[in-house]
UniProtKB/TrEMBL annotation:
<feature type="binding site">
    <location>
        <position position="306"/>
    </location>
    <ligand>
        <name>[4Fe-4S] cluster</name>
    </ligand>
</feature>
<dbReference type="Pfam" id="PF08497">
    <property type="entry name" value="Radical_SAM_N"/>
</dbReference>
<keyword id="KW-0411">Iron-sulfur</keyword>
<protein>
    <submittedName>
        <fullName>UPF0313 protein</fullName>
    </submittedName>
</protein>
<feature type="region of interest" description="Disordered">
    <location>
        <begin position="589"/>
        <end position="617"/>
    </location>
</feature>
<dbReference type="InterPro" id="IPR022946">
    <property type="entry name" value="UPF0313"/>
</dbReference>
<dbReference type="InterPro" id="IPR007197">
    <property type="entry name" value="rSAM"/>
</dbReference>
<dbReference type="InterPro" id="IPR013704">
    <property type="entry name" value="UPF0313_N"/>
</dbReference>
<dbReference type="InterPro" id="IPR024560">
    <property type="entry name" value="UPF0313_C"/>
</dbReference>
<dbReference type="InterPro" id="IPR006638">
    <property type="entry name" value="Elp3/MiaA/NifB-like_rSAM"/>
</dbReference>
<comment type="similarity">
    <text>Belongs to the UPF0313 family.</text>
</comment>
<dbReference type="InterPro" id="IPR020612">
    <property type="entry name" value="Methylthiotransferase_CS"/>
</dbReference>
<keyword id="KW-0004">4Fe-4S</keyword>
<feature type="domain" description="Radical SAM core">
    <location>
        <begin position="288"/>
        <end position="568"/>
    </location>
</feature>
<dbReference type="InterPro" id="IPR058240">
    <property type="entry name" value="rSAM_sf"/>
</dbReference>
<feature type="compositionally biased region" description="Basic residues">
    <location>
        <begin position="604"/>
        <end position="617"/>
    </location>
</feature>
<keyword id="KW-0408">Iron</keyword>
Length: 617
């Protein structure tokens, strides 16, 4: 600030992450947006909240407002495993060091700022604030919490990707409009005393959901709320949501319409250095940055609507794609980085293959309330042509200085296999898969079938496992034809709502017969603002209000997880006992009968049994 000749900053942002000036880090994006608007912006990364609070005082008061974010992850997901065990590292801290941010960081930071500077507005943003904007289940305290505005005392909350909201807010605050009057900005939430009027837009209809206190008394009412929260979060023309909390109301204004390509390009064209702040030199690498330093994000948003995923709750259902020109400009910037060795780690997004996919008739999209465009079936109005994306991959891979451009984001193979009725489109979609397998896989292609049981997959909003079988056949066919020896790595989840022990046993048998020994697996972790979490807490599906089985105890979870590792000797006896208890001798035979080994394993064993004098031919 002294070097810049500033007597004060206009805006001071506090973030739970280390500061990395890269478009994948939220604080950097908001900082650059505000800077482009002509404001003096200071950023305080990972302030110490346990000492005399000097990090909160060192820059003094901002002229306009403070901004707070917990960082790129909910602080509790960042800190704890699915078993509520404290993690020993933090990917967003130099050296991966744990302990650089508090639990519930958004609340802690805001409480401190409000106490130190009671007259300066504090606004909340980022993943943690976004997913906790209304009554939500907090897995780590095992209770319902009110919207985060209630506990934090912040003046305003920006949910989702907040570029437009923060720009509008800053413009009005600079004009001298009091923050308490700014109640009609889209994609924001605020608290209002019961019965008091506030500025709003005439075309915003209010939809009142069950009060926080009612949710505390009745789990079914909490579940019923979520259908409306999800639908209104993902609608083009949404209602504002109103929820009573004590004698006040949380009002959640509708989201902005999806950004245009020009608007998202403007974000990525800001002058990011793409580097961590120099203060971290010699303090160890920042693991999250190492993962994305040579990657390119080509779109945002996801219309998959998976029950356990928060992407659409934060980024929205509608996919917003960058222009090819903007993408290639970033490729050039990556190639020019001093440490670039020729390998781009990812050309992707929340899902790798949704680039440029949107409704054919956008008027139908404006009326749509479906949480997913591809479940239970692919919407007839959705354009699923992959040919433009295939062409983009080829241009990136052929750019001077690029040796390989890998696809690290998850691929929705149900989109690639979707039959549109148009021969050229359908062949183009399959050609996309061939292109990925032949030229953009770093030895292992990772995909996420998540489960094998149709009942569980229905709760997850995922396609039938039969499609994964088809992918397996297709993948191995391309590898054989091209003389490649690549692996297909599937992700699976245990203990998801709807998953029973028998379902996990079936999963083990199915994957064994496909010659997989699973490694990319996880227990379901309930995170705020997902269908699966609502089911986990309440026991009811929010769309049908019917009861759903939920594995909750440590014993149930461990019992399910063991089936991932059926091949480990230490689990064999206990798994056999479980299958006998379930009266499933068929599954016991499929898993543990030596004669039922998959063909691949038999071939491997036959090679090992050859006598030492056997000559190779």
């Amino acid at each position: 600030m002294k070097a810049l000749g500033w007597d004060a900053a206009d805006v001071i942002l506090f973030t739970g992450d280390a500061y990395v000036d890269h478009p994948s880090f939220g604080a950097a994006v908001i900082g650059r947006i505000l800077e482009a608007a002509g404001l003096r912006v200071a950023i305080v990364p990972q302030p110490n909240w346990t000492d005399d609070l000097r990090d909160f005082k060192k820059l003094g008061e901002p002229r306009l407002f403070f901004g707070v974010t917990a960082g790129n992850m909910d602080s509790m997901v960042n800190h704890y495993t699915a078993n509520r065990r404290r993690r020993s590292n933090d990917a967003y801290t130099p050296g991966g060091r744990a302990g650089a941010r508090p639990d519930y960081a958004s609340v802690v930071y805001t409480n401190i700022l409000k106490k130190l500077y009671p007259d300066i507005p504090v606004v909340l943003g980022g993943i943690e604030a976004s997913l906790r904007r209304l009554t939500h289940y907090d897995y780590w305290s095992d209770k319902l919490k009110p919207g985060i505005l209630e506990e934090s005392g912040a003046d305003l909350l920006f949910y989702g990707m907040a570029e437009k909201s923060i720009s509008e807010f800053a413009r009005l605050v600079q004009r001298g409009v009091p923050v308490q009057s700014l109640t009609n900005i889209p994609q924001t939430a605020f608290m209002n005393p019961e019965g008091e009027s506030y500025a709003t837009k005439v075309d915003w209809e209010a939809l009142e959901i069950n009060a926080h206190e009612e949710c505390l008394k009745d789990k079914k009412k909490f579940a019923a709320n979520f259908r409306y929260i999800e639908e209104e979060s993902n609608r083009w023309q949404a209602n504002k949501l109103v929820q009573q909390v004590g004698r006040r109301q949380i009002v959640v204004n509708p989201p902005w319409p999806p950004l245009s390509t020009k608007e998202i390009d403007q974000v990525y064209d800001l002058p990011f250095t793409r580097l961590p702040h120099p203060r971290y030199n010699g303090k160890g690498a920042i693991p999250a940055y190492e993962m994305i330093r040579h990657s390119i994000n080509i779109h945002r948003g996801c219309f998959g609507g998976c029950s356990f995923c928060t992407i659409s709750a934060h980024q929205g259902k509608f996919v917003v794609s960058r222009s090819e020109k903007s993408v290639m400009k970033e490729v050039e910037a990556v190639v020019d980085m001093p440490d670039f060795k020729g390998y781009i780690s990812d050309v992707g997004g929340p899902s790798a293959n949704m680039y440029r996919m949107a409704g054919k008739d956008l008027e139908l999209c404006r009326q749509c309330k479906r949480p997913s465009c591809i479940y239970p079936s692919v919407c007839k109005n959705l354009e699923t042509d992959h040919r433009t994306l295939t062409g983009l991959y080829q241009k990136v891979a052929s750019f001077p200085g690029v040796k390989k451009a890998f696809i690290g984001s998850g691929i929705r193979y149900d989109l690639a296999f979707h039959e549109t009725g148009g021969a050229k489109k359908d062949e183009g979609n399959l050609e996309y898969l061939r292109e990925v397998i032949r030229h953009h896989v770093s030895g292992r292609l990772k995909v996420a079938p998540e489960h094998t049981s149709d009942d569980v997959l229905n709760v997850m909003r995922k396609p039938s496992f039969e499609l994964f079988r088809r992918l397996t056949t297709f993948f191995h066919s391309v590898n054989r034809k091209e003389g490649l020896k690549q692996q297909l790595i599937p992700y699976f989840i245990s203990s998801h709502p709807g998953s029973k022990l028998e379902d996990m046993a079936e999963l083990a048998a199915e994957t064994k017969e496909l010659d997989f020994k699973l490694e990319q697996v996880q227990d379901f972790t309930p995170t705020p603002m997902t269908v699966a979490t609502v089911i986990y807490y309440s026991g009811y599906h929010p769309y049908t209000l019917e009861k759903v089985f939920v594995p909750k105890t440590e014993k149930e979870k461990l019992g399910q997880r063991k089936f991932f590792f059926w091949y480990k000797k230490e689990y064999r006896n206990s798994l056999m006992q479980e299958l006998q208890r379930l009266n499933r001798p068929d599954l016991e035979k499929r898993l543990f009968d030596a004669e039922q080994q998959p063909a691949g394993n038999k071939r491997n064993q036959s090679k090992r049994k050859k006598p030492k004098h056997h000559k190779r031919r």
